[in-house]
Design goal:
2 copies of one chain form a homodimer.
Chain A lengths: L1 H18 L7 E6 L4 E6 L6 H4 L2 E7 L2 E6 L1 E2 L4 E6 L5 E9 L8 E7 L9 E4 L3 E4 L8 E4 L8 H12 L5 E5 L15 E4 L3 E7 L1 H16 L3 E7 L14 H15 L5 E6 L10 H14 L6 E2 L17 E4 L7 H11 L3 E5 L3 E2 L10 H13 L3 E4 L1 E2 L8 H4 L7 H13 L7 E2 L8 E4 L3 E5 L7 E3 L1 E3 L8 E8 L4 E4 L4 E5 L4 E4 L4 E3 L6 E8 L1
Parallel strand pairs in A: 1-8, 11-12, 11-21, 12-15, 15-16, 16-17, 18-19, 19-21, 20-22
Antiparallel strand pairs in A: 2-6, 3-4, 3-7, 5-6, 7-8, 9-10, 13-14, 23-24, 24-25, 25-33, 26-32, 27-31, 28-29, 28-30, 28-33, 30-31
Helix pairs in contact in A: 5-6, 7-8, 8-10
Chain lengths: 524, 524
């Protein structure tokens, strides 16, 4: 019945289109669902197209409508990018204040997504993430602010490093970073550094380069957490203190160009509170602009230095936090989960490295510990690296290669996560110094951190448990990356008001080393 | 000039009043500023005055107007209570839908507050409290839910206990507590227990008793944190599941009766999320009702079980939280300060006692530790007691006397707080495991908790410091309640990017016991 109705609608639409005078042959494009269709239209190049030409398109499938902004790409070329949210045919019509660009019609056919295309990442089960097709997204992030402002060779090296790395999300800045000292090869506005910018004209080449890199990240399964503003310009180029109207135009242009990339996340800022020229109302406003302009509702958050943004605001999809201490233990990390009822990502928890600054001198063991403690709290953590280098080649700043030894352990960590229940890891027994997360009566992942227990009495918190349930167990060495099955099975009986225990009172032997974990899985 | 103008206004007001036909002699009352004037008016007792008679009064001083709701107190008596927010004359006029109660005029003269009357407690310096006259309020709270639903003898005993105790805030419930088993002597509605209530009629005797107790708490310097709803009725009397209109009437009646008591705080609930009949929108609504009806803007918050209310809402003046683990270390406790930018009170952090339930078995040392850790985080903590008793005499439930040994240590703690800077204790160096709070370059209070250091190198975080500054120090044993001055003074020099240290590299000797603190004070 529903299919027949849709078919009828499609026929009706075709007929209607056939009777209209088309300005050109009806454009047809085929892409995957959540792929990217690009409609290129020639248009006026006189005057200032960035300021004077409006362009958008409405895409329709049955009752569903998606309105998408187009953008000027220089040299008389206009583009509209579309990420089909559903498979099937999408008919579109353009809208413009220029006749040449107005009323153009066409069709985008979205095929089923290919293997590896799971759609954009969404909030899942309140405090977790999943791709739109339901595949869990276990966030294991890293940060390299200016990696896409380097030489071609270095950027290729970074992509090669990332392709072999455990990270599935990368925080990266759109504006270049003056702290890095070297002059970036491209700038977002027409004009010349340091400050002779024509703020009414974007530099399309800058954005084409950025998009290529975002696309390449997507190809290797990495979400691009795009940082829209940051304070590391310090007025040198002035991108940290643009006039209000330029900031709005910039946000709209970025969203028009990039929102059709399914692996985009929007981060309003890095260390927003260090951008002293902007008020809290400005940040609210940027969020609202991005939310309004992005037809696909990509994830949105903002990253702090010392002042926290109000992540309870409805336009914040998930929590992105810098805190130097919060991921040191799971009972700290869980607290923000309680506050926000959204996914919590501790994007900056200090970095692995040997910098003289206190934020950049974690030992690799300390870096890895934070990911585990975060996971036991039902939250997510971010990595980066700050090892001194005579040539300033620091992953955090420019990418390149890793010097540290946390990445292989984080690959192991991610593998363990990916074997966990798709609902996400939920803390098992809050406020009781109980280092387990998982799914009651099904799956328990425990982590002892710096503790060096020699055994663990087989005792589980009561929720969902019944006498006679059976479990198997594995001892996990998170640093040495081993998983060792424990012999035999454990059958539980009620022990007290709060717990069930192995009926024979058995314990699991542990090696008395730090960084050990336990996995306990119910036997059906 | 200002005085002359006020005098002129007063004369004008007198003259105007003199020319109006007064229904009776102009009532005159004199009370202290922040005291309580009560205007009693006879009125109709027929029908249902609670439902049918509206009464309010407008108090005026110069350009300032305070609109106050009156209430029916039974037996044909109506009352209007007024807490003058400023000294001087306040002229009033009543408003009613009954002629007998309408247009009544009079004057309340507010004299300067007497010693010990500092006004209501307000938010101070963003994350702290002070009385309205600027005197710091160092919150050291306790909880006794149903102490005001006991026998006269027991309630007198509780008051005697409190008068000698360190606590300056008491959480107490307005509705009785069915968990306590014994039948309370009074109920808030007319009718009979368990459920034969006339929900259209309040029981004035119940409220007169409650007010007397709130007033007595005020007399001994204790703020009454009045819990407006709680889940411990479980439908027995049904006060946890009243119809929506009754809840609103109840809130208005309580606020009308009690808001003129300067020591009142409003707590929308204890463990709000256990009241399954109420939605989050209901709680928002209760807050808004209380905010609208209370002319004095007393402090407002709400207490949780496992779900957290959104304390960023503008009608929440301070954070009131139950968390079984957050006050165990200052680096946890500081996190909610960062989130909320409001005063943070950890009203329930588990209780001192020997209950079988995990929330009621803290050792006294653990109870006291939480107050200190909270203070070092720039936050505030609450106490209660749950020691088993053959007669059910538990402080948490009914009051009486203390069985525990934390109160003298909390008296000592409060004394130390009261000697701290009036701006409140602010964390000195966040995220660096630095257990000091205070005021940069002036006052440092450190606490080592369970740590047992044998010395402390004299090293201070850099903010505000300069070479040559001198300090004195005291070693504080928070459990044994001693303050021992350290011999000599310490002169600092810059040590590195982050710290200044004693120029001779000296340390302060510590006894290698837990629960030790340090106080370091700048010598001018």
């Amino acid at each position: 019945m529903r299919k027949l109705y849709l078919l009828a609608c499609a026929l009706a639409a075709s007929i209607a289109l056939a009777t209209l005078p088309a300005p050109a042959a009806l454009a047809q494009t085929t892409v995957e669902r959540w792929g990217r269709a690009e409609i290129a239209l020639p248009g006026p190049s006189s005057g200032n197209p960035f300021m004077e030409v409006d362009l958008s398109a409405t895409f329709r499938q049955g009752a569903q409508t998606v309105k998408v902004a187009g953008f000027y790409d220089g040299d008389g070329q206009y583009k509209i990018r579309f990420m089909p949210p559903e498979s099937g045919d999408w008919e579109y019509e353009t809208h413009s204040n220029r006749a040449q660009l107005n009323g153009r019609k066409g069709k985008v056919t979205a095929t089923a997504p290919s293997a590896g295309n799971h759609g954009p990442v969404r909030v899942h089960n309140t405090r977790h993430f999943a791709y739109e097709d339901g595949t869990p997204f276990w966030q294991v992030g890293t940060t390299s602010y200016a990696w896409a402002h380097q030489t071609e060779a270095l950027e290729q090296q970074t992509l090669k490093t990332l392709a072999a790395a455990p990270f599935n999300k990368l925080r990266m800045a759109i504006f270049p970073n003056h702290d890095d000292k070297n002059e970036p090869p491209r700038f977002p506005f027409a004009g010349h550094p340091p400050k002779a910018w024509d703020l009414t004209r974007f530099n399309p080449e800058f954005f084409r380069h950025l998009e290529r890199r975002v696309g390449q990240l997507g190809d290797i399964g990495i979400e691009a957490d795009l940082i829209l503003f940051h304070p590391y310009d310090k007025g040198y180029w002035g991108f940290d203190r643009l006039p209000a109207d330029v900031n709005q135009r910039y946000l709209r242009y970025v969203v028009a160009r990039l929102s059709a990339y399914r692996n985009v996340w929007w981060s309003m800022a890095n260390e927003f509170d260090f951008l002293k020229e902007k008020t809290m109302a400005d940040w609210d406003n940027y969020f609202q602009t991005v939310q309004r302009e992005d037809p696909y509702n990509h994830l949105r958050s903002i990253h702090n230095a010392f002042v926290f943004y109000n992540h309870t605001q409805p336009w914040v999809t998930h929590v992105s936090v810098q805190s130097g201490a919060i991921a040191e233990d799971f009972e700290r990390a869980v607290l923000f989960r309680d506050v926000y009822n959204k996914p919590v990502v501790y994007d900056e928890v200090k970095y692995e490295g040997n910098f003289s600054r206190r934020w950049g001198q974690l030992k690799p063991e300390e870096m890895v510990l934070r990911f585990w403690e975060g996971a036991i709290a039902g939250t997510y953590v971010g990595h980066s690296e700050s090892y001194e280098d005579p040539n300033g080649m620091v992953w955090l700043a420019k990418g390149g290669t890793f010097k540290g030894s946390s990445p292989p352990r984080l690959a192991f960590f991610r593998k363990i996560l990916s074997e966990s229940p798709p609902e996400g890891l939920e803390p098992i027994d809050k406020w009781q110094n109980h280092p387990f997360a998982g799914k009651h009566a099904q799956y328990y992942l425990g982590y002892f951190g710096l503790g060096t227990p020699k055994d663990w009495p087989f005792v589980l918190f009561k929720t969902g448990l019944q006498d006679g349930m059976k479990f198997r167990a594995e001892v996990i060495d998170t640093w040495n990356m081993t998983v060792t099955p424990v012999d035999g099975t454990f059958e539980i009986v009620k022990r007290d008001n709060y717990t069930f225990a192995d009926k024979n009172g058995r314990s699991i032997a542990l090696p008395g080393r730090p960084y050990m974990a336990l996995r306990i899985i119910r036997i059906p």
